[in-house]
Amino acid sequence: MADAAGDEKQSNGKLNTKLLDELESGPWPSFVKEIKAAAKNNDSARDLLGQLELSYEDRISHWKHGGLVGVLGYGGGVIGRYSDVPEKFPNVAHFHTMRINHPAAWFYSSEALRTICDIWERHGSGLTNMHGSTGDIILLGTTTDHLEPTFQELTHEGFDLGGSGSAVRTPSSCVGMARCEWACYDSMKLCYDLTMHYQDELHRPAFPYKFKFKCSACPNDCVASIARADMSIIGTWKDEIQIDDAEVANYAATGLDIQKDVCSHCPGKCMDWDGKKLSIDNHDCVRCMHCMNVMPKALRPGKERGAVILLGAKAPILQGALLSSVLVPFVPADELFETIKELVSRIWDFWDEYGTNRERIGELIQRVGMPTFLDAIGLDPAPEMVSAPRDNPYIYFQAEKESEQ
Amino acid sequence: MTTTAAPLQPRLTDVGPPKYDKYLPPMVRKNYGHWKYHENLAPGVLCHVAESGDRLYTVRGGAPRLLSIETIRKFADLADKYCGGYLRFTSRNNIEFLLTDKANIEPLKRDLAAMGIPVGGTNNAISNIVHTQGWVHCHSSATDASGIVKSVMDALCEHFTHEDLPAKLRIALACCLNMCGAVHCSDIAILGVHQRPPKVQKDLLPKVCEIPTLISSCPTGAIRPATYDGKPSVDVIEEQCMYCANCYTVCPAMPLNDPNTDGISIWVGGKVSNARSEPRFSKLAIPFLPNNPPRWPEVVEAVVKIVDVYRKNARKYERVGEWIDRVGWPRFFALTGFEFTRYHIDDFKHAGLTYARSAHVRY
To answer: Which of A135, A228, B119, B330 is the most exposed place for a label (fewest CB within 10 A)?
Structure first.
């Protein structure tokens, strides 16, 4: 069936894509229309369409396991991709992806977007992902001989490759101070500073496995840092929530049931509404954001702002998924970059020494234990690091600590 | 594609991305860090008010993530027409136009509608689906990504363009357990799965793989050294395999892809935000649905069912997981009609943490 379909696709110069054609209708924008738009002027986009139709018929991927390709002096940023049916679709026989480090919070000028489009028109399929899961601009599909020229044109326009493999991956940040009243630190600037500081580690993989930074400027965590970043930097505040009593009253007057919609959802049970005034016991506030999300005009984060640094999130491969957990409960906003650099150097030293092949930092901590990890990076244990102290009595007492007593 | 020319000189490397503030629109630059509050004007339309009194209007549109340069250029044209030549994308593949003139909102929405771009995805609406490459560009995918996303969003588009759910709802799709899309903390996660162990390609394996690396790649120790025709190879203890495909990632001679047994699992109740309850993982709702391109009707039906049941039963502000916390998992399975099977009970590490360890039972 596959052969016949492939021959049919190659015959009379017109592609038969009857399965994919069904994905052109409906209210949601169609990726098939996008591939067809690129295919008008580009043979590789045309063969991509053909190969994808074949996958829809066969219900299996027709891409082979990646190979090592890249640009001179870098160990990452390009994902090698080869068709397993090159005889049918020769223009995607080699169809490599380039990851381009996006501008923080994905802001562009129309001129910058056109520049990228022009480069990709000259050198690739004309297809992109805006954006890939980690945040990069994804340029989908080109051949090895175009990698270096594309790279050079991009760097001359102020863009660079993103991360891949066992390296620092392209850091990402929420929109933060650019357009959000809840930003507790400058997530875009921190993201940029980290990206620039770790250029070498980003382009030249030297780690046991990947390492991701994600910067969310408040606990709403719009870049999913707690689920997806080895180091999650989540904005928060230390002092009291700022209340505008008149605006609270306005929300109440316009139909918001403050007791039910705000106070009853508070995880710290720290809010009280007497029908006229909202009072908050800030010591019991866990900084969850619900009340501010519901009444953005009336409530704002406090003025003593910074971030909580958490460590270790990852998807299931290999030993199971992890969420990041608290490493430093609060770092003032203006000390974040220096604190992170110092922490990261200690964390990477330990990971370099003890991490096994394809072991994320979160899994290494699971394997050796958090107390051992804290000793190694020279951080004191703190109750904010745990949801509860251990409930098993198998404590590894340390001989030297015993002798001190 | 044009033929390759001589590389530009000088050769530049390690330039990094554009500086973080390079492409900020003037009003954003002026009020950076000084936003006071925001209002919701309509689904997909926000108004942020700065301490200076400036008002910035955001119009959010859903994009298919896989974009041709033709469409990106059209977005650039709209940015020139309405936004002084700037735009941004969101962390969920939406496109956002930032306007300083409120009068431009409706004309922009009309232009987007003409392009087939729906406006919405804010507050208690379904936002765009974050997803992976699937058959478009990945070797290890157990299913496609874009086609399922298109089919699911076609069915749920009215919940993107209307804020008509109890709370925000985040759907994500990953086409294998590698989870490039990190779907594991989503209200509804669509996850491609394999159901059979890798098929060892004995001829290829000694040429392309390091055997010790391959053996140590298996989290359950199911891969053992073996010799075939005098050449080093491996055996797979099949009953120990949980189809994670980590071996395939390190060794191309261990493919798991199988059109007849690959398919999709559905997970529910995860979240990332700290609002109200803590961030948490999604839990298994349906262990397996078949790959049925081009429109995966079984998957669409299941996701729509979850959304409908959630919409009817959850209280205001309850995310899917928070709603299930309140009503309990037996009620979730009763309301959705999904079968609860042996596969729903965890048997990997720390499985006991998910067993019901109390006499709290709802009847």
So the answer is: B330
